[in-house]
C-alpha cells in the first residue's frame, strides 16, 4: 500500500512546484504519473514541463503522444497506470482513492499537490485526507514554509 503525501502550497503554484517534485522522483529512478481533472490543465502542464527551465529536461508525454508505457512521466486524466509508475501526483482536485483502488495505484507513493490559497482545493484536500485515513492509508502532510521548503505538519497513523 503506497504512502500518501499531501503538499500544501502557500507560496508557489502547482506549475512552479511540480517540476521540482518530478525531478526528485526521477533522481530516485522512479516513473511518475501526473493526474489532473481536465484536458485543459494537462495541456498547460505539458507546456510548462517542456519550458520550465532551459537547462533541464523532464521526459514526459500524454495520450496524444502514444506509447504511454514508454513515458517516464505520463500526464493523464484517467485512473490507469500505463507506465507502471512508482509515484503518482494528483493536481486540480483529482481524486486519489479511485486510482488506488484499481490498477492505477503507484508502487511507492501518491501525492496530492494543492494550492492552499484556493478555498475549494483546500476543502477538497481535507475531505480526501479524511477519506484516505478512514480507508487505512498511511498519510503525511507537508506545508510549504516561508522559505519555500517543506515542513511536515501531520502524519497518520500517529507514531
Automatic annotation (TrEMBL):
<dbReference type="Pfam" id="PF04364">
    <property type="entry name" value="DNA_pol3_chi"/>
</dbReference>
<protein>
    <submittedName>
        <fullName>DNA polymerase III subunit chi</fullName>
    </submittedName>
</protein>
<dbReference type="InterPro" id="IPR036768">
    <property type="entry name" value="PolIII_chi_sf"/>
</dbReference>
<dbReference type="InterPro" id="IPR007459">
    <property type="entry name" value="DNA_pol3_chi"/>
</dbReference>
Amino acid at each position: 500500500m503506497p504512502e500518501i503525501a499531501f503538499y500544501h502550497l502557500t507560496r508557489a503554484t502547482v506549475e512552479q512546484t511540480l517540476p521540482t517534485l518530478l525531478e526528485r522522483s526521477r533522481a530516485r529512478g522512479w516513473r511518475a504519473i501526473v493526474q489532473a481533472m481536465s484536458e485543459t490543465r494537462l495541456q498547460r502542464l505539458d507546456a510548462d514541463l517542456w519550458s520550465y527551465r532551459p537547462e533541464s529536461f523532464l521526459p514526459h508525454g500524454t495520450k496524444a503522444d502514444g506509447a504511454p508505457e514508454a513515458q517516464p512521466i505520463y500526464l493523464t486524466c484517467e485512473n490507469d497506470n500505463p507506465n507502471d509508475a512508482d509515484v503518482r501526483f494528483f493536481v486540480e482536485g483529482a481524486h486519489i482513492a479511485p486510482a488506488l483502488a484499481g490498477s492505477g495505484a503507484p508502487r511507492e507513493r501518491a501525492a496530492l499537490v494543492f494550492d492552499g490559497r484556493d478555498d475549494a482545493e483546500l476543502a477538497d484536500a481535507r475531505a480526501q485526507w479524511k477519506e484516505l485515513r478512514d480507508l487505512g492509508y498511511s498519510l503525511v502532510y507537508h506545508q510549504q514554509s516561508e522559505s519555500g521548503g517543506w515542513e511536515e505538519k501531520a502524519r497518520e497513523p500517529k507514531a
